[in-house]
Amino acid sequence: MGIRTDKAVNNHKSFHTCSSSVLEAFADIIGITESEAKNISAPFAGGRMGKCGAVMSAEYVLEQMYGSDAPDRIAEYEAAFMEDKGSVMCSDLRGNCRACVTDAARILEDMIG
Q1: What's the pLDDT tens digit per position in 50-69?
Q2: Cα→Cα distances 111→22, 28, 39, 46, Å
Q3: What is the model's pTM?
């Protein structure tokens, strides 16, 4: 695992939500603080928007980094996540949040370096 993936996993072990675990690990890349990341990611947690919160946070990072090119990067990201997990929907993934945080962060870290 990379440094950011390790950080995301450690965040989750420290009882951060799935979404904040990922976004906080990548916050500095998009120019926000970890506190801001926690607030931004709050609506994504626990599948409240349908999609896995860890995935939503990773996609937020891609949106901030790539702007108008983000949809292509997000499609690439989702394809990689679905290859590992079979779905991006929280209801399909529930019960294995730590693995989702790990994979969401790892795939993002692999994509952006």
Answers
A1: 999 999 999 999 999 999 99
A2: 14, 16, 24, 24
A3: 0.95
